[in-house]
Amino acid sequence: MGAVEPQVQAVTRTPLIALLGNPNCGKTALFNRLTGARQKVANYAGVTIERKEGSFTSPAGRAFRVLDLPGAYSLSATTPDEAITRDVVGGLRAGEQAPDAVVCVVNATNLRLNLRLVLEIRRLGLPMVLALNMVDVAHKRGIKIDSAKLAQELGMTVVDTVAVQSGGELSLLKALDLMPHAAAVKAAPLSAIDAVPVEETQREVRRILDACVSYANDTGNLSEKIDDVVLHPVFGPILLAALMFLVFQAVFSWAAVPMEMISGAVEAVGAWVGGMMSAGMLRSLLVEGILGGVGSVLVFLPQILILFFFILVLEDCGYLPRAAFLLDRVMGGVGLSGRAFIPLLSSFACAIPGVMAARTIQNPRDRLVTIMIAPLMTCSARLPVYALIIAAFIPNRDVGGGLVNLQGLVLFILYFAGIISAMGVAWVIKRFMGANSHQPLMLELPSYHWPHLRNLALGLWERAKIFLVRVGTVILALMVLLWFLSSFPGAPEGATQPPIYYSIAGMLGRALAVVFGPIGFGWQICIALVPGMAAREVAVGALGTVYALSQTGDELATTLAPIISHSWSLPTALSLLAWYVFAPQCIATLSVVRRETGSVRYAFIMAGYMFALAYTASFITYRVAIAMGA
Ligand SMILES: Nc1nc2c(ncn2[C@@H]2O[C@H](COP(=O)(O)OP(=O)(O)OP(=O)(O)O)[C@@H](O)[C@H]2O)c(=O)[nH]1
Ligand SMILES: [Mg+2]
User: Fold this and answer.
1) pTM of the predicted structure, to 2 decimals
2) Is 452 in the pocket of ligand 1 (CB under 6 A)?
3) Domains defined for the chain, CATH in brackets
4) What is the whole-number distance in angstroms between the Cα of residue 314 and the centre of ligand 2?
5) Which pLDDT band holds residue 2 (cuts at 50, 70, 90)?
């Protein structure tokens, strides 16, 4: 049986194609175009950090499976994400078949760098097609590539592709259709790659370029001219700071109108439901439990989308690696690698992709430090918490001659506090680990381009979907659970407090208040902290439910900010803000840290140090605020 199986497989198996190439050459864009998938595409190296599989059918009706892989400059991997690519191509991954053919994707405007990998992969002896991607840009820049000659020199089919244009993949599909239905070829071992010295490979690249590429009236690269300003030692950092500042201003000022619309709609629904039903358990569950909880999280959708709008634009236009360069010196000062910039920036969305993106960091210590501080970056789940408290306590007015919105300014300060403490913690960890010398940052600067509107729209839609699904599932379920725990058992005879005070949640909250009292958190806040462990924004929903149920009298409460501004003192509010800068709230992050570091130890260390920092920071904030008479 063992002898028959491989032959049968060779005839019936769907061929597996691997997309290989340098970082940022358009592999994922091509993968998305071939398969209709929506994997993340962005204009910097190291976007894809995992292997992703998809399938498609060619115009001639042949089925293919296709792999999108992290970009690599060479198959002699130096970073964990490159190792994934090497292992997949070399068939070294347990339980996984090696690819039957390779589509080598290259950036047509940068063949000098890209061809080295092509020559390396060729030594594996697998069937290959070369996709000259970004030929649109090459044409514009007057770079002429003789593909017939190139095909001859390389001994493989060469096709032009434009991965970001509809139909830009057709030539590749045609080439794949023409590939013979051969039985699986066994690749040469990976060691074949290193059989030829690098210098010799470089010489070969130069020879091929001389033979196949000409640069007609090259007008000079526009990106370089832009970089004269963007990377300028004085203007560069000013521009970066101005950009960041603009983002936080926009988060507040642009969001005001849509937020009012959402909260108006939630209130209207609450009033409608409340009017339809007589007071009772079901009405309380619907109005206070669900609308009060879910509604108070939902209003933050516009702010989250505005934040992501900026992140997506910056990612797509090519600015991020420049920012990494500008900050390399600062980051080096605390012992971080400049490469940590992109993982840390991703953590503004959520610490989980941030922790995973640390795979692009070569040095294991640098990688560990980056992982350990990633959750200090303000993730988007904290935004609702910050925004709620700011809206309740910070007046919405302009300062500095009408230029700066005070609420936006406070938000900016909170984000900044996260960054500064991350730097501080990195410095301390590096001290413990023993410093290694700072390695210079080697990062490819991509060409600038305008953000693709479709990409942007899809990215925002994905974000909205993630948020709404969370609101509709985790948050909704927790709100219902919390409502039960907060409603039973009811108040005893002659109760002086609202019923929630005597409920199970109320008892838990009062017990926790013993620990958190010294930092200003009353029992109601303590109730909200517990479900906030699942996801930070749940804390806002929980506050919504808790305070809706704490209302005495008959009025229905679905708008949280005015209630908390009455119930909390300013020191309490500031203390809670300080808590959320540091608190290790989210269990999902801790479990990813365990997976990525391969040890539960670091997850515990992270939770421990963040908890200690949170408590200390809140304590100091609370006491100082009281002492100052706030
Ligand atoms: N003009 C133009 N832009 C392209 C083309 N293909 C990709 N891009 C852009 O190039 C950038 C990189 O594309 P990705 O698909 O993320 O590149 P990748 O090779 O998957 O990158 P890594 O995952 O980091 O290795 C994105 O900004 C794309 O929009 C193309 O054919 N023409
Ligand atoms: Mg990719």
Assistant:
1) 0.83
2) yes
3) 5-215 (3.40.50.300)
4) 17
5) very low
